């Protein structure tokens, strides 16, 4: 009798879990990477609101009246988020300070993860979303397809390539850290020359670079992410032609310079589509 009760209870729990997974959510996604993963897994119909003001071009399908505008990736519109009547709110580090206030509207899921073991943590994130929404098979298929496409791009790049990646902000170049370049695509960071120091400002650490520093590092490619453009300050954008000319003057004529899509890299990332698009841009330099 007890065995029958246990079996019946287990079946009831399983049926309940399946029903919950099948129940459509009303999602506000402040995180663009999660948004593109939801899209790739066929879950866009469950999205009701996105921050349209910094929406990357590759997610333009969400820039319609069908979706409530909840501000931008940094300055969010909490009132608008509430008006969308969500059942789930997805955030990342940029919105962390608003988490408690957002919890008053609906359950909040912080989708940030550690970049130190990027592939492992990214895979776990996609698998989690797949399980959460009852599309585990789609998630696994999407991951397999992504790995296949990444391998093709890595073959195009070839072995033993060294890179420098800089973040530009209003005339200043700072060494950037984007795991897709090193951990996903397998390029090697060029070594910092003697005398270049990492500085601290509050809790932030950053390493300023000059064109001379970059030439001394002898990379095969210099990747540039223009933060000024990403945050809609085109008047502060980097003069890329002038930077290229300066590198040539300093002896860096063989350094390839690749201007990466600023919204894709600075505003988005960590999604099934964005990781592939980033990898594709990395490979396009070769």
UniProtKB/TrEMBL annotation:
Domain Fe/B12 periplasmic-binding, first and last residues per copy: 26-286
**What does the record list as GO biological process?**
iron coordination entity transport
Tell me where the signal peptide lies.
Answer: 1-21
Query: Quick check: keyword Transport in the entry?
Result: yes
In terms of domain of life, where is this protein from? Bacteria
| Primary subcellular site in the record, as a coarse category | other
User: What cellular component terms from Gene Ontology apply here?
Assistant: outer membrane-bounded periplasmic space
Give the UniProt family note. Belongs to the bacterial solute-binding protein 8 family.
| Name of the protein this chain belongs to | Iron complex transport system substrate-binding protein
What are the leading ranks of the lineage?
Bacteria, Pseudomonadati, Pseudomonadota, Gammaproteobacteria, Oceanospirillales
